[in-house]
Amino acid sequence: MKKVAFYTLGCKLNFSETSTISRQFEEKGYLKVDFQENPDIFIINTCSVTENADKKCKKIVKEAKKISPNSYVTIIGCYAQLKPTEISEIEGVDAVLGAAEKFRLIELLDDFAKAQDTKVLASEIQEATVFNNAYSINDRTRTFLKVQDGCNYGCAFCTIPLARGKSRSNTIASVVESAKEIAATGVKEIVLTGVNIGDFGIVDGKRNERFADLVYALDEVEGINRLRISSIEPNLLTNEIISFAATSKRFVPHFHVPLQSGSNTILRKMGRRYLRELYVDRVTKIKTLMPHACIGVDVIVGFPGETDELFLETYNFLNELDISYLHVFTYSERANTRAAEMDEVVPMKKRSERSKMLRILSEKKRRKFYTENLGKTFTVLFEEDVEDGKIHGFTENYIRVAAKYDPMLINELKLVTLDQINDKGNVEVLEPEFVFEKH
Ligand code: SF4
């Protein structure tokens, strides 16, 4: 029985895809093992957004060869699609597969027989038109379910459309089937993932269905306690979806909404499809209907043309907005993007200063959000996340909660009252009250 090990870099989408590919291997009789367990085959799923993607890829290949010198090393993922030739030149790599090929790798790689030359099977990204269903099953608490792939937007800084292709989706019927399958394994929370999830509904280049209808259909699936939307563009997070989430049985009051800049000048340069006024509307709508909702924000600092003044616009905008945390990205030039050709480049030192300022702001926001919720009662889904005698989990509105470790808590929903914020910044609960089986 051949042994195969996986390594994933990047986003939830990559994790869901690795998980599905690993199940394909298991179905064919391969044994899935940990990275250190002398595998015969390594599958490394790469990311192009990660800083130093090339260095990371080389490092993992080197490590793999150290563990198992005769192993067959395959590289897939966004970086593999963008730079197949470069990757094929890394010592120790046996095969590189692109976006259109990665889900067929067992059939394409010919029993993983080693050859003199590295196999490069990466078609042009235009060929990646098929949607491949994927979901991750890890510790049975949360699952990432891919519902959409690719993007038609073409923001000036982004390589994702080049690495993942055009927007395409699963069908509502098929997502519902997957959700039922996942529910049957005992998973309590599904996180819907995609590249541009609000653009859900395009099949073979035609819009057939709507994201809002997917939301309605999933809300009816028995056996799943929680549904979370991973991240959605502000222009696609409609009032219809927000209003539904406010009354939903299963969709949680947590929204992660990329802003990228609080300056309209920069938003226009980035080619984003909204202005800051729309963002304020969305936040106001969410907070009016769900005052306890958690709102996460992606923001990029140091985009070309971001002067001190324009950065301050972003800072002040975020400071005044009723949001709960930020994910801060420091802009870095990516080959083949419009932004990489732009003038008014921001010096690296300024970029990191701005990033630091926003990270501090994020902590302030998170603490404020947690403090506002102290004394209130929520449901926590405890995960296999144990440290220093404490077990952790998240409330429906994404507050990270710590409680005294008890193995019986894993994958259980408990009703808790949030007592205090501990020195690690988590909210501590003294006594999870009782098992809360809502559905
Ligand atoms: S919406 Fe913009 S940033 Fe997001 S994947 Fe599409 S092109 Fe990239």
UniProtKB/TrEMBL annotation:
InterPro entries from the UniProt entry: Elp3/MiaA/NifB-like_rSAM, Methylthiotransferase, Methylthiotransferase_CS, Methylthiotransferase_N, Methylthiotransferase_N_sf, MiaB-like_bact, rSAM, rSAM_horseshoe
Reactions catalysed according to its record: N(6)-L-threonylcarbamoyladenosine(37) in tRNA + (sulfur carrier)-SH + AH2 + 2 S-adenosyl-L-methionine = 2-methylsulfanyl-N(6)-L-threonylcarbamoyladenosine(37) in tRNA + (sulfur carrier)-H + 5'-deoxyadenosine + L-methionine + A + S-adenosyl-L-homocysteine + 2 H(+)
Enzyme Commission code: 2.8.4.5
UniProt entry keywords in alphabetical sequence: 4Fe-4S, Cytoplasm, Iron, Iron-sulfur, Metal-binding, S-adenosyl-L-methionine, Transferase, tRNA processing
MTTase N-terminal domain span: 2-114
PANTHER family: CDK5 REGULATORY SUBUNIT-ASSOCIATED PROTEIN 1, MITOCHONDRIAL TRNA METHYLTHIOTRANSFERASE CDK5RAP1
Protein name: Threonylcarbamoyladenosine tRNA methylthiotransferase MtaB
Protein's organism: Algoriphagus chordae
